Amino acid sequence: MSTPPLTQQTAPAPPSVSLQIRIANCNSLDIAEITLAKSALNIKYGPNGIGKSTIARALTLRAEGDDALKALTPFKYRDGTGHPQPSVEGADDIKSVLTFDDRYVSQFVFQQDEVLKNSFEIFINTAEYQAGNEEIEELFAALQTTFVEQEEFDKAVHAFTHLCEVFGVTKTGVLSKSTKGYKAMAVGGKLQNIPEPLKGYKGFLQSNDPASWVAWQAKGKSFLDLSDNCPFCSIDGVDKATAELVSAEYETATVKNMSQLRAAIETAGHYFDPSYLAQLSEMLTLITEPKPEQLQFLATLRGEVEVFLNRLKTLRGLAFHTLRDEEKVDEHLSGLKIDLGLLRSLNSETTKSVVAIINSKLDEVASQISVVKARIGQQRGRVKRLIEANQKQINSFLESAGYRYQVSIEPSDDSYRMLIQHQDLPGHLGAANSHLSYGERNAFALVLFMYQVRREQPDLVVLDDPVSSFDDTKKFAILHELFRGKNSIRDQTTLMLTHDLEPAIDIVRLSTRRLFATAHPVAHFLTSKRGTITEKPIGKDDLKTFGEVCDANIAAASDDIIKLIYLRRKLEILGVSDASTDVLSNLFHLRVAPDRPVGGGDREPLSPEEVAVGSSKIGEVVPGFDYGVVVDGLRDLDTLKDKFAATAVGYEKVQLFRMMLEIDEPQEDDTFKKFVNETFHIENEYVMQLDPREFDSVPEFVVRECERQVALMKVT
Fold first, then answer.
1. CA 468 to CA 500: how far, in whole Å?
2. Which part of the chain is the Protein CR006 P-loop domain (predicted)?
3. Quick one: average pLDDT of 490-510?
4. Which of 304, 432, 529, 613 is the most exposed place for a label (fewest CB within 10 A)?
5. 64 with 96: CB under 8 angstroms?
């Protein structure tokens, strides 16, 4: 069904339920109080270092239960006892959390030979797929019950498997002399024909478990040199030579292999043709090297047992994945019947009775072959639709975001896996992680994460700074896919933590917000004061153009220097370069005689006419502006300190602090001065911004360091 035009859509009513979350004593965060609107996109915007990732981790760990939250215990509380414990209140409804962050990308995405860990579970193993599998398995239920009911036969299968494992063959089909079975035969005759000096140990060597006794005797042998007494019974006059001969004749591991081999033959013996069983038993008592014909006998025996086991394995595993690639299902099933006439070594009465039951069950399945073929076909159709839909959706996103990669979902053993390839190179990339850039990995991982969310339906989805590293085109493509696309997570309770204002601009302010209306976006600005994080709603009218912000603050400011701070900001953002910007630049550097750079580190003074023209333009905004009077007043450190103390706006404090550095430059922290000058010289990230007077985005540590250094400044 096509989507109606946007103008015809009516967005559902916004969610009425919100969770009041209080996070305490986690890492460097003392308290964080946030709201989460359920079934909505909650955007929390704030500067780096404020504690957004700690909020994400706290909510994730709290859902894990037990003592998981203790991982966030602040360093100041890690010694001693009686300290406050990390806690999250108000999140009782959040039982499961799925979080997208760097850990998710590294642990689940771009595995070797698979794009996403558990591709099958996320993309194919839907409820519909599972139901289809169950319908197919019902058709083979009677056959599978046969294996379950034949408990004795099941034990024999394990014994047959052991025989195949210990009697390995070479590529030419000859029995390998390096296998455990061949080596075990070498000791079989010695156990049957015990050397004369060791016949006193016959009862031990021919017991049901000679290997354990040989191992015990070998351990005791190491104590023979400690005394003339027997280390086993402590009597006088032990025959040390005879005691040592046991280990020389019977190596522990070989005896153990022979014991296991005999046990396997005893368990599975009655499934062998009697003549073959007699030959096999005789070979386990050889006192000479096996003859070539004997080795060929064992190789043939092993080959027939292996064929039989593989057929049983196929029959036991009959399911959709074993039949999905069979074009002629009826012929395939018919070919699975066991013909013991061709497996002469197993053609015993016992085996015949079991095989007859199995073959009859296969005949019952064959009688319903039309139903089998129909259900296999239906399941193939389901898988095809799932693959096509998922591939199309992901590849459409990759194309829209400008990535030259594509994915394909292909069968793998009893599962499916998603592979990735580049448009310029045939075949899939075995190690996609080494080919994709950081941004490509994150963008791709986000979309795959979206599918996992749809599959698992967690109570809370956390996106920890998901799109800040992308350019505008890719950023919007990702947001659109996550909260607007066919498989979007718009109906999930989602917490997006970001230091990037653009998602709020796109989703809350611009005309594009209509596209995200069904996600019920709610945006907040996070601020931190002395370890406590609080939030303030960001409404459509709070996102203004930089010009609107500057004009509003120029009009609202009562102090002319504050007006000039925002005027300079506005002119620099607009790219104005004339006499007014030259005058303002000199003013903020507190130069008594205004000048300009002329290259090579040299400067030249501004002419009186230039100063007059610039001052006149500034006077249109700040009436009565006089460069000399203003500079003279600002060169008084106490005056600047008073202005610094009078404002509570971080951005304004930083600009005043920069001016104070022109008078008194603390020598103890030159790095901080450079940081302040370069980072907070001008805010020009977006055309649209939040008013710094209403949403103070200057990190608290910067303001506090400015305050500390201002307190140290003295008039010289």
1. 5
2. 359-500
3. 81
4. 529
5. no
45/563 Cα distance (integer angstroms): 27
CA 373 to chain centre: 39
Q: Please check the confidence at residue 1 and state whether its pLDDT lies above 50.
A: no
- Residue range 172-202, pLDDT digits in tens: 777 777 777 667 666 655 566 666 666 666 6
pLDDT tens-digit series, residues 19-36? 999 999 998 889 999 999
Interatomic CA distance for residues 710 and 178, integer angstroms: 83
CA distances from 250 to 254, 388, 523 (A): 7, 64, 79
CATH code, 19-108+451-538: 3.40.50.300
Residue 124, CB half-sphere, CA atoms under 13 Å: how many? 24
CATH 3.40.50.300 domain range(s) in the chain? 19-108+451-538
Pseudo-torsion of CA 308, 311, 315, 321, nearest 10°?
150
CA dist 150 and 400 (Å) reads 58
The encoded tokens of residue 656 equal 């005043």
In degrees and rounded to multiples of 5, residue 653 shows phi and psi of -60, -45
523 SS3 class: strand
First-to-last C-alpha distance (Å) of the chain: 78
- Please state, in angstroms and rounded to a whole number, the distance separating the CA atoms of residues 66 and 62: 8
Q: Are 214 and 284 spatial neighbours (Cβ–Cβ below 8 Å)?
A: no
**401: Cβ–Cβ under 8 A, 6 or more apart, which residues?**
443, 473, 474, 477, 478
The distance of Cα 368 from the centroid of its chain, to the nearest Å, equals: 44
Residue 494 CA to residue 519 CA, distance in Å, equals 9
